[in-house]
TrEMBL record:
<dbReference type="GO" id="GO:0048731">
    <property type="term" value="P:system development"/>
</dbReference>
<dbReference type="GO" id="GO:0003723">
    <property type="term" value="F:RNA binding"/>
</dbReference>
<feature type="repeat" description="PPR">
    <location>
        <begin position="178"/>
        <end position="212"/>
    </location>
</feature>
<protein>
    <recommendedName>
        <fullName>Pentatricopeptide repeat-containing protein</fullName>
    </recommendedName>
</protein>
<dbReference type="InterPro" id="IPR046960">
    <property type="entry name" value="PPR_At4g14850-like_plant"/>
</dbReference>
<feature type="repeat" description="PPR">
    <location>
        <begin position="482"/>
        <end position="516"/>
    </location>
</feature>
<feature type="repeat" description="PPR">
    <location>
        <begin position="381"/>
        <end position="415"/>
    </location>
</feature>
<dbReference type="InterPro" id="IPR002885">
    <property type="entry name" value="PPR_rpt"/>
</dbReference>
<dbReference type="Pfam" id="PF01535">
    <property type="entry name" value="PPR"/>
</dbReference>
<keyword id="KW-0677">Repeat</keyword>
<feature type="repeat" description="PPR">
    <location>
        <begin position="584"/>
        <end position="618"/>
    </location>
</feature>
<feature type="repeat" description="PPR">
    <location>
        <begin position="685"/>
        <end position="719"/>
    </location>
</feature>
<dbReference type="Pfam" id="PF13041">
    <property type="entry name" value="PPR_2"/>
</dbReference>
<feature type="repeat" description="PPR">
    <location>
        <begin position="279"/>
        <end position="313"/>
    </location>
</feature>
<feature type="repeat" description="PPR">
    <location>
        <begin position="76"/>
        <end position="110"/>
    </location>
</feature>
<dbReference type="GO" id="GO:0009451">
    <property type="term" value="P:RNA modification"/>
</dbReference>
<dbReference type="InterPro" id="IPR011990">
    <property type="entry name" value="TPR-like_helical_dom_sf"/>
</dbReference>
């Protein structure tokens, strides 16, 4: 045309630019653009300007498209739509929002395409209010009658925002429902995890004579994973092969992913191998399955093979690599992957990769590194906050997890359902009812707390915090009270020592047709153990045996051992112990603890030695139990061996262990060794001081005991009830009446320790020993809570020594009221009568 000397006009240029756009030929398009500029066609012809913007946009030259858009002397709706679609295609949401605001300011009336773009962008950020406003405008203008594209976009917008009932309503009112309409609705349900509805809508779609396409079938396979229906997935696989759709790489990749998610790794690999073409998504789907099911090393082998085939790794591949490193315990490989991620600057582009790195470090107990990655992210989302919060919680840093949640709120992030779930869990772990209450109130505002899963978590949180009225209130508000909710109450009551209530709820659940599981039985057995309810324990044991839980669940066996041992039925405890197929350190410790509690200390030591000969390594609790046994029977050599083991493991400085060691040495008569352990403590607590002082007192070193107690008081350590029991006992033994009164006075006035029966016994016994029987009786009469048999036996003994028959009669009367079956009381009284010749 040009060779013939014919100059192109507007129509020529527009058609030529459209051809360049379709062919993605940017070079030819730029030549035509140069000709347009030479001829001065750009300023005077809007259609040419629009065609140029369209060509540059489609060829991914967004900057040039923007420059041309800004240069347009006049813009129509088409101009705006072209630039909006370009930025929307490249997911530059902020830019699209700015353009829509500018378009509105310029007074440009939106057409159906503009409305479709607006719906897409506002639904992507979850702004349902704007979506509803656009919907209202569309209805006013009657645009839905003739525009199926706009109708489908409305369905998509509501579905994306999670308003699926509204999406369903609009779908049903569409004048015509094509395959796109059905796929849009089905995709919405699929994205929100409602697999059952996806499959039901797919049946209706086929019933309407609309055959499913690749998008429909991909959703169907994903739905099968959501509802864990492998059989249905295999049926869809057969249908896909029948229709010859395995040539579609998207369907093939989804099949690889589906089998991987079901753990059928061999089948996943088989489908992968038979794919006619493999892309990075195919490889990533394959290695994701292996990573998810603990085959981390195999997954990384696929990565090497993938790279040797010239395949470039993408962001999702690196996420799967990090999962593989977690499942395979491959820290070194995970660190290498982090290095590659840094070199490729993926953290700057993909926050999800950062989230995977945070999870990798947290799962490998490198929580400080996880926090460093979090701090380095240029942009954070709720998932990143959630992952770090959970990381801290799982690494035993519950308070730090709550602090992070507070930072998240202060940074303006809105928690999602997962965040609320995590914080409820953490609040329950550390008994922080305030944060738990805050989450409860937030969920109530959002109308979410009655949902079964969240409601259960709130009940569990309140129960773990010991706030049972709140737990029960929420329980009764839950629309569907399932086993999880009942277990939260049974376990919560049992853990907090409310054993009667735990058994009440355990029995009540059966009347509601709720069948107990392992967790329920564990709570009920704990309650029986607390109360010493052997008969109820036997009944629960029978139910457990009927369900064959003892053979399959070690925790049940351990709880039964503990229950029988605490109830004094050691033969039954031993029987259960020997019937457990896998005897863990917990099983051995439960049996050992039961023996010690019932003063079978030698047997406990025998089990301890047997346990070690079986190759079972004792834990912290086992060693504490054995130290107590050594204390009871004076086996100091065994105690020293345990001490050496504890030193090796660096546990000697912990409060509980150091107190047990001081107690063991003191009870075994080696107070010097007890003193040595005490002196090595960085900070000695009141229990350590009390234990050492009681040890000195026990072996007659009364002066040293009192010196130690006075030193403790002088150092400003707050004494407790036991401190004064020891002090008054020493005064009693040494007949230090004035010191006794001084300590009694100091308890109330200086230290705020309430007087207990043990303290009164020492005072009254001392008064009796120094011959002040009448004062002892007068003193006891002022104290209505005194009912200790030892006190009155002390008075009787003193009366015998002093020959005071009148006081003896009063003491005898009180003693017999307390225990009329003790033969020692009348024998003692008969000696007093004989001594008085009455």
């Amino acid at each position: 045309m040009q060779l013939k000397g014919v100059l192109p006009n507007t129509i020529t240029f527009v058609h030529c630019l459209k051809s360049c756009t379709n062919l993605m030929d940017i070079n030819k398009g730029q030549e035509i653009h140069a000709d347009i500029e030479k001829l001065g066609y750009f300023e005077g012809h809007l259609s040419i300007g629009n065609a140029l913007i369209g060509m540059y946009s489609k060829c991914n030259f967004l900057d040039e498209a923007c420059i041309l858009f800004d240069k347009l002397p006049l813009r129509d709706t088409v101009s705006w739509n072209l630039i909006l679609a370009a930025f929307l295609e490249h997911k530059q949401i902020d830019k699209v929002l700015d353009l829509l605001a500018w378009m509105h300011f310029e007074g440009v009336a939106p057409d159906p395409f503009t409305c479709a773009c607006s719906l897409k962008v506002y639904s992507s950020i979850g702004d349902i209010e704007v979506v509803q406003m656009i919907h209202s405008e569309i209805q006013k203008k009657g645009l839905l009658e003739d525009d199926i594209l706009l109708g489908n976009m409305l369905v998509d917008a509501y579905a994306t925002c999670g308003f699926l009932s509204a999406a369903e309503c609009i779908f049903s009112r569409l004048p015509k429902q094509d395959v796109v309409s059905w796929n849009t609705l089905i995709t919405g349900y699929c994205e929100h995890g409602d697999g059952e509805t996806v499959l039901m809508r797919l049946e209706l779609m086929q019933g309407a004579n609309i055959p499913p396409n690749s998008i429909s079938l991909v959703c169907a396979l994903r739905a099968c994973v959501q509802i864990a229906d492998i059989k249905k997935a295999q049926e869809f696989h057969v249908e896909i092969e029948r229709q010859g759709l395995l040539q579609d790489i998207v369907i093939g990749n989804t099949l690889v992913d589906t089998y991987g998610k079901f753990g059928l790794l061999g089948k996943s690999y088989e489908v992968f191998v038979n794919l006619p073409k493999k892309d990075v998504v195919s490889w990533t789907a394959l290695l994701a399955g292996y990573a998810d099911y603990g085959h981390g090393k195999e997954a990384l082998m696929f990565v090497k093979q993938m790279q040797s085939d010239g395949m470039d790794l993408n962001d999702v591949t690196y996420i799967c690599i990090l999962k593989a490193c977690i499942s395979g315990g491959l820290i070194r490989e995970g660190l290498d992957a982090h290095g590659e991620i840094e070199r490729r600057e993926l953290l700057e582009k993909y926050v999800e990769v950062g989230v995977a790195l945070i999870d990798f470090y947290a799962k490998n107990e490198l929580i400080a590194r996880a926090h460093e990655v979090f701090d380095s992210l240029p942009a954070r989302n709720v998932l990143a906050w959630n992952t770090l919060i959970v990381g801290y919680a799982e690494n035993g840093c519950a308070k730090e997890a709550l602090n992070l949640f507070e930072c998240m709120l202060n940074d303006g992030f809105s928690p999602d359902v997962q965040t609320f779930s995590f914080i409820l869990m953490v609040s329950g772990m550390i008994g922080d009812k305030e944060w738990g209450w805050y989450i409860h109130s937030e969920l109530e505002k959002k109308g979410l707390f009655q949902a079964s899963a969240l409601g259960n978590m709130i009940v569990d949180m309140y129960a773990k915090c010991g706030s049972f009225p709140s737990a029960q209130t929420v329980f009764f508000k839950i629309s569907d009270q399932d086993l999880v909710a009942w277990n939260a109450l049974v376990t919560g009551f049992a853990e907090h020592g409310h054993a009667h209530e735990a058994l009440h709820w355990f029995e009540h659940m059966s009347t509601k047709g709720i069948f107990p599981n392992t967790i329920t039985f564990l709570g009920a057995l704990k309650a029986c153990t607390t109360l010493g309810f052997l008969n109820k324990g036997l009944e629960i044991h029978a139910n457990i045996a009927r369900l064959n839980l003892l053979e399959s669940d070690a925790a049940i066996g351990n709880s039964l051992i503990n229950m029988y041992a605490k109830c004094g039925v050691l033969t039954k405890a031993r029987e259960i112990f020997h019937s457990i197929p896998d005897q863990s350190v917990i099983s051995w410790t439960a049996l050992i603890a039961g023996c010690i509690e019932h003063e079978c200390d030698k047997e406990a030591l025998m089990y301890y030695k047997h346990m070690q000969s079986e190759g079972i390594i004792p834990n912290f609790v086992t060693r504490l139990c054995i130290l107590n046994a050594c204390s009871s029977i004076g086996t100091i050599q065994m105690g020293r061996e345990i001490h050496a083991e504890i030193e090796k493991e660096g546990l000697a400085q912990t409060d509980v262990v150091s107190n047990a060691l001081v107690h063991m040495y003191a009870k075994c008569g080696s107070v010097d060794e007890a003193q040595n352990v005490f002196d090595q403590l960085t900070v000695a607590n009141v229990v350590a001081w009390n234990t050492l002082a009681a040890g000195y007192a026990l072996f007659g070193r009364h002066t040293t005991a009192l010196t130690l107690i006075n030193r403790m008081l002088k150092d400003g350590l707050k004494p407790n009830m036991v401190t004064f029991v020891t002090a008054l006992s020493v005064c009693n033994q040494c007949c230090l009446f004035n010191d006794c009164l001084m300590f009694l006075e100091a308890m109330n006035t200086e230290h705020g320790v309430h007087v207990a029966i043990e303290h009164i016994t020492s005072i009254i016994t001392l008064l009796c020993r120094v011959g002040q029987v009448e004062n002892a009786l007068a003193f006891s009469n002022k104290l209505p809570f005194v009912s200790n048999l030892v006190v009155w036996l002390s008075v009787l003994s003193a009366c015998r020594a002093n020959g005071d028959l009148e006081c003896a009669r009063v003491a005898y009367k009180h003693a017999m009221c307390l225990n009329n079956e003790d033969p020692a009381i009348p024998v003692l009284m008969s000696h007093i009568y004989r001594g008085s010749n009455t």
